[in-house]
Queue: 2 jobs
Job 1
Amino acid sequence: MATKVIVSLPGEHDYSVRIGSGIIAALGCNLREIERFSTIRDVLVITDSDVGPLYLAQVKASLSQAGFKAADIVVPAGENSKSLEIAGEIWSAMAQLGMGRDCVVVALGGGVVGDLAGYVAASYMRGVPVVQVPTTLLAMVDSSVGGKTAVNLPEGKNLVGAFWQPSFVCADTDTLATLPDREWRCGCGEVAKSAVIDSDDFFFWLTNHAHELANRDSETTQEAIARCVVFKADVVARDKTESEGVRECLNYGHTLGHAIESCASFGTFSHGACVAEGMRFAARLAQSVAPEAGRGAVEAFAEAQAELLDALGLESLNHGLSPEELLAAMKHDKKVRSGELRFVLVDDIASWRVETLSDDLVLAALGG
Ligand SMILES: NC(=O)c1ccc[n+]([C@@H]2O[C@H](COP(=O)([O-])OP(=O)(O)OC[C@H]3O[C@@H](n4cnc5c(N)ncnc54)[C@H](O)[C@@H]3O)[C@@H](O)[C@H]2O)c1
């Protein structure tokens, strides 16, 4: 049975996120059910060189059965494809194909394809609809929902982008069967982040089902995705453009996580493993700033979180990086404001806040 979550955002069309096994087959019909898509003909499917050979034919068959004329572009798999150069090639191809404002872009792949195709759609002819068909766990639980799209510059990640909500999201859990283990764990890190920030209910459900999720049990996976989508939809509804301070909670674990990724050179450790390490670190920071009286509770939370991460296969990272280089990398993060280090700290499940911390305190928690 597929699950459907409706995302309602102020000033936007509502959109559905469908989650289930084999639902790509119904993608074309689902799109035809969207009123403003009823007369659309041209669709461009953007995918990458790993995902294309696996799922492009299914997606195109479903689209053509519903009367769409589907073209495709396959970009090289990997973060390097999130570039202005590739975006430019796709815009030119769309113009050469004669695509007008009445076309739809379909993003078939992980977060890289989702962010790239989303940005391409947000800018082509000042904006055409995008449909997300996520094929990684990370993209299903996080990046396909919420409308953040971007490409990278040589100067940094995600520096050029737009908020552009999808018109529909189709998360076919069958596609996860071919996902490498490393990418699976990456998604598990984001599921853990969502559970910690969301609620006792989600956290304890995940704690009880962590081994099933780590072992890719299908029912558990579908429920974990649905819970994450409900959580993210709620956060985004309260802070569509990251201007209200609510969406900042999604950065939990990411400040140190990004620093480890960049110091160790991107790709050495998976993003999920780095985020998990960042969550452990943020819990240490929360303990070091907690008042004496409340420290016991913060420690108990840190322990429960560590057990959850271990059970998900996200053990503590032995990255060997020095506190000083990690501190320098964190200060380069684009989310740093006037040189001050800001962290999402969690004292207990669903109890988060953003705090500015001194370099000395951060260095001490890093073991420097
Ligand atoms: N927009 C957002 O809100 C948001 C949130 C989090 C992350 N992101 C972005 O997402 C990107 C990371 O996304 P990702 O982790 O999905 O990585 P990815 O898109 O690079 O996918 C990882 C690898 O798995 C392959 N792959 C994808 N689906 C597969 C499948 N079903 N079977 C086999 N192989 C498959 C891909 O081709 C790629 O080689 C980053 O660029 C990050 O900035 C965006």
Job 2
Amino acid sequence: MSARTALITGGTSGIGKATAELLHSRGYRVAVTGQRPEGVAQARAELPEDVLVLQADARSLAETDKVVSEVGARFGSLTTLFLNAGVSRPMTLATADEAAYDEVFSVNTKGQFFTLAKALPLLTDGASVIVTVGIGATRSLTGNSVTAGSHGAFLGMIPTLALELAPRRMRINAISPGFTDTPMTRASLRAQSDDVAAVMAAIAEKNPFGRLGVPADMARTVAFLASDDAAYITGQEIMVAGGAGLAI
Ligand SMILES: NC(=O)c1ccc[n+]([C@@H]2O[C@H](COP(=O)([O-])OP(=O)(O)OC[C@H]3O[C@@H](n4cnc5c(N)ncnc54)[C@H](OP(=O)(O)O)[C@@H]3O)[C@@H](O)[C@H]2O)c1
């Protein structure tokens, strides 16, 4: 069997970084991308030395071409593609902001789609593609309409993409995290409250399992979907949210 290889976009922080660590510990050769130079430098310092850490803006097709070419030169092919680069820009109808709207759709929807399109020649027959969406795509949260819409747009593509990939036995599935303790979550809560710990405690209290998600919860789900144990699963969304959003 050829070596398992993974490209993780948005792999310098939070869910993507935890997944890079887990897949690496399970013997994968791993490449990650991030956008900010500081985040890329920190990931280079913190991830295992042989993880390839690339700076690339998922909004730029030219930068995505460079990522695909560097990963191809290093690994030859990819058995796993984790499309996880994402941003969240809370806004209500009253605070709607066109530039922020365009940024969100450009990273979360267009960036994911074109990364998959451009990585296709590198993907092996039977490869697994996993996309981070979000429980918000199908559940309500004030101020989340644009981020939710960008994830929902990709979710809407998944059945078609699954059928397009099926002739080569390639699979595509989505994971939908609930509130997860990552730098993104903390930054977004800081913008709403001076007492982030209190807000997080309140969110945990409302969750049926009594806690927020942690990046490792998502990483283990991605590792399952990437593995042969999920070889007959495609076109699905798995919510990883401790039962959040199930109550009526
Ligand atoms: N945390 C949650 O509660 C939650 C819930 C539902 C869905 N999600 C989704 O989960 C995904 C990961 O989020 P996270 O919580 O782990 O956040 P995070 O810690 O902020 O990580 C986001 C990652 O995406 C990268 N990224 C952002 N913009 C990029 C761009 N233009 N080009 C390339 N990379 C870019 C970031 O790199 P830089 O830091 O360099 O920009 C970082 O590596 C996102 O799609 C998010 O919407 C998260």
